[in-house]
Amino acid sequence: MRKLLFFLIIVLFSAKAFSQYNFRRFSIGLGGGPNRPFSDVYTNKTGITATIYSDFYFTPFVVGGLETQIGSLKGGNRVLDPHLREFQNSYKTVLFTGKISLGQLLNYNRRSFANTIKGVYVGTGAGFIYNKMKFVTRIKPDGQNNYTFPGKDSGINMVIPATAGIGFNIDDAWDETRYIISVGYQMNLTFGEGMDGFNDPPSIFENNYNDMYSYATISVKYCYGRKAAFYRPFRYK
Fold first, then answer.
1. How many angstroms separate the first and last alpha carbons of the chain?
2. Backbone dihedral angles phi then psi of residue 103, each to the nearest 5 degrees
3. Phi and psi based region of residue 197 (left: phi greater than 0; alpha: psi -120 to 50; beta: remaining)
4. pTM
5. Distance between CA atoms of 193 and 170, rounded to whole angstroms?
6. Which of 23, 129, 151, 173 has the fewest CB atoms within 10 Å of its CB?
């Protein structure tokens, strides 16, 4: 009997065990911060973007979501730009995103460094940007040949985002995550020439690359809905 008990103790302490963490499947949140376009004009300016988030959690660290951005992208200068171009785009972007955090891959405990960085995430997705020019220099203001800059004052282009950041969980009285505060950075690659409203010949205006814009954000999300269990392995060593 003693040998059997001793054997069971050895197995218990050497085998891999699992701890359970309860989490909620859904979250909704708000975020905002500065943006900056990378467009066809020489000088790009900083604007502001606000975002609404709606996420579904497959695990506490694997997330699929819908992201809606509303903001203003602007650049150029009618006086100082070499081609006298300027634009301001009151845009809206809808993105379907997926993110994974380090917590999905790490084996951590409360007091470890891994626990501190478990919220570091990367992600990507796909979506669309709706461009609407609040202002665009359509006729070159040089008082000479009245050259018309080709392009559209509104339209829709596809967007591919690449995002990274870190999230910090705020737990409730039952030691379950209720709020998530995140700091992130996103680079959005657009397909088409609608973001700045200009579609000039590349041979003259150096229009050789896709339009892009970056977005730095701070967000707060509220977790709700039905609970689910997440099991992560650890060793009794």
1. 25
2. -60, -25
3. left
4. 0.85
5. 42
6. 173
